[in-house]
Design a protein that fits this description.
5-stranded parallel β-sheet, 26 strands, alpha/beta, globular
Length: 399
């Protein structure tokens, strides 16, 4: 392979570039990114950066000893791909051809059309998003967070610590159920309540009040009116894969891949938030939007790209962490389908405990709150998913 093009100047893209050099690739390395910035760390955007304890310079991920010898094409958006010739089209009319392509275009924050263009309504996904929101984090201001996912919850936590009046709106009965299950979702909800965040569960917004291009309030389905100075929308993310439509790369809720990141097109792999890797735990491809996945899976995708005969390697159970109201929440594994939950240390009422999810006698997930040492030890004991020899869920992709 003479030329490797990485589409996405993200954590996943940078990790792939590092892995390529570490695995002996000495050819031309091109990294394409639609933002003007080199790769930066996103998790602190909703925490330390919003609070002003770090600056944008602290976010950048490159180090002096990376030695990538890469060509960076920043501020350039990929608009199309000819998979047969492995040619990438950019928004400035330029075309880039490569022997191998790694797709790492990530995902974007899902929008609410009713709030589009309003000056005090924000999503939080990029550095520009965080910079725009930071100026509105004013003590005493009323913040409405739409969506009780982890980004929304972290913004709520940061805002509450700033002395803002925070209301978090969640359309399900118990927040965080999808990730943690209902019982532990209630524990996290109680953590927010104990720190002054009002949580509206099972709530839907029926009307948005506006004045002079800004949100002034939200009307709920039960008739309640919620005044707001600032609104943050945290309702999930959508993969950036539209540029691949018609390319020949199989798309289905993301770039469909096998368990090493291979697509249906030889010489093209995908990794990060845009990639739906085959997951043996559920028997189908699915996207997992976690920092550690972007970091760890990049090396596997590069291995599969540089060596088409590379054997299947085990992937670690998904892992994520979140800092909320001074409590470190860590989770690994899959909670769906568990039939038993055991508190193995600490007390959930004190928000310092270790919980293990079981399916039968097998531990399938672990949750820790302010228990990093016990969590790390227990996480290592989770069994890796059995690796399928021939993932049937990817039959349409050619594997």
């Amino acid at each position: 392979m003479q030329t490797l093009a990485i589409v996405g100047a993200s954590l996943a893209g940078l990790s792939a570039a590092r892995a390529a050099r570490a695995q002996g690739f000495t050819g031309r390395l091109i990294i394409i990114g639609d933002e003007c910035h080199r790769p930066y760390d996103r998790p602190p955007l909703s925490k330390d950066f919003l609070l002003g304890t770090i600056t944008s310079d602290d976010l950048f991920l490159e180090t002096d000893d990376d030695g990538l010898n890469a060509e960076w094409l920043l501020g350039q958006e990929a608009t199309g791909l000819d998979a047969a010739t492995r040619t990438i089209r950019l928004n400035d009319g330029q075309s880039i051809s490569a022997d191998g392509i790694l797709i790492a275009t990530g995902a974007r924050a899902r929008q609410l059309p009713e709030l589009a263009g309003l000056g005090n309504a924000f999503t939080l996904r990029t550095l520009a998003d965080a910079q725009a929101l930071a100026g509105h984090m004013v003590p005493g201001a009323r913040l409405a967070v739409i969506g009780a996912g982890f980004v929304g919850a972290e913004v709520a936590s940061s805002a509450a610590s700033r002395g803002m009046k925070v209301t978090m709106i969640n359309n399900s009965t118990v927040p965080f159920t999808a990730q943690l299950g209902e019982e532990m979702g209630k524990v996290v909800a109680n953590l927010h309540a104990a720190n002054g965040v009002e949580l509206l569960s099972g709530a839907a917004i029926t009307e948005v009040h506006r004045n002079e291009g800004k949100v002034t309030g939200l009307v709920m389905s039960d008739g309640r009116e919620l005044d707001a100075d600032v609104v943050v929308v945290g309702i999930g993310a959508e993969p950036n894969v539209e540029w691949l439509e018609g390319s020949g790369v199989h798309l289905d809720g993301g770039v469909v891949c096998d368990g090493m990141g291979r697509t249906n097109v030889p010489g093209i792999v995908a990794v990060g938030d845009c990639a739906a890797w085959f997951d043996d735990a559920v028997g189908r491809p699915r996207r997992i939007e976690h920092w550690t996945g972007a970091l760890e899976r990049a090396a596997l995708a590069v291995q599969a790209l540089l060596n088409e005969d590379a054997p299947q390697q085990p992937t670690k159970p998904p892992y994520f962490w979140s800092d909320q109201h001074g409590v470190k929440i860590q989770f690994a594994g899959h909670s769906s389908g568990h039939d038993r939950l055991e508190i193995e240390a600490g007390d959930p009422q004190e928000h310092s405990f270790l919980a293990v999810y079981y399916r039968g006698e097998t531990p399938v997930a672990v949750l820790g709150m302010n228990q990093p040492r016990l969590f790390t030890k227990r996480r290592r004991s989770l069994p890796a998913p059995a690796q399928a020899q021939e993932p049937a869920g990817l039959a349409a992709v050619g594997h």
